[in-house]
Amino acid sequence: MPTLLIVHHTPSPNCQAILEAVLAGATTPEIENVRVERRAALSATASDVLAADGYLLGTPANLGYMSGALKHFFDQVYYPCLDETRGRPFGYYVHGGSDVTGAVRGIESITTGLAWRRAAEPVTVTGEPGKADLEACWELGATVAAGLM
Ligand SMILES: Cc1cc2nc3c(=O)[nH]c(=O)nc-3n(C[C@H](O)[C@H](O)[C@H](O)COP(=O)(O)O)c2cc1C
C-alpha cells in the first residue's frame, strides 16, 4: 500500500489546527489504500522518507525561514535520500505571523535539489486560520494523498 509521510513542526494551537485539517483531508474515506504516517520533524528519519511514496511537509515561518526543526529534517535526510526519492510527489504548508516568503523559498529550493515533484499548490496561512484556510489545508492533504492511489 502506498504511504504518505507527513513531516511537520507544530509548536502552537494554530499550527495544530492546520495539521489536523491536512490530516483529515489525507485520511478522508474516499481515498482508499493509502497509509498516512505522521512524524514530528525532529523525529523523522531517512528511513521514514525512503519507506514512503509521497510527502507532506508543514512548518511555521521562523526568523524569515522554515523552522529549525524542518531544516534539521532536511539536513538529516537530504543525501541519504537524494538518489532514491527523485520524482516523488510532495506538498507543503507554511504558517506564519505575517511573512512566509523566506520559508516558502527555502522549501522550494531544497525540494528542487531533491528533485521531488510538487503535487499540489503550497498553502500559506498567516494568523489564526479561518474556514477557507482550513479548507485549503484539507484539500492539500486530500490532493497529495489521492495522487498516491
Ligand atoms: C522566533 C520567532 C520567529 C518568527 N518569525 C516569523 C517570520 O519570519 N515570519 C512570520 O510570518 N512569522 C514568524 N513568526 C511567527 C510564527 O510563524 C508563528 O508564531 C507560528 O506559525 C505559530 O503561530 P501562532 O503563534 O499564531 O500560533 C515567528 C515566531 C517566532 C517565535
Give the secondary structure arrangement, pairings included:
Elements: E1 3-8, H1 13-26, E2 35-40, H2 46-51, E3 54-62, E4 65-66, H3 68-82, E5 89-96, H4 101-114, E6 117-118, E7 123-126, H5 131-146
The chain binds flavin mononucleotide.
Rg over CA atoms, rounded to whole Å, is: 14 Å
Q: What is the overall silhouette?
A: globular
Structural class estimated from helices and strands: alpha/beta
Biggest sheet descriptor: 7 strands, mixed
Q: pLDDT under 50 segments (min length 5)?
A: none
What would your notes on this structure say?
This protein has 149 residues and is of the alpha/beta class. Helix content is 44%, strand content 25%. It is built from five helices and seven strands, in the order E-H-E-H-E-E-H-E-H-E-E-H. It has helices spanning 13-26, 46-51, 68-82, 101-114, 131-146, and strands at 3-8, 35-40, 54-62, 65-66, 89-96, 117-118, 123-126. The relative contact order is 0.24. The model has no long low-confidence stretch (mean pLDDT 98). The structure holds flavin mononucleotide. Flavin mononucleotide binds at residues 12-15, 60-64, 95-100.
Annotation keywords:
44% helix, binds flavin mononucleotide, 149 residues, 5 helices, alpha/beta
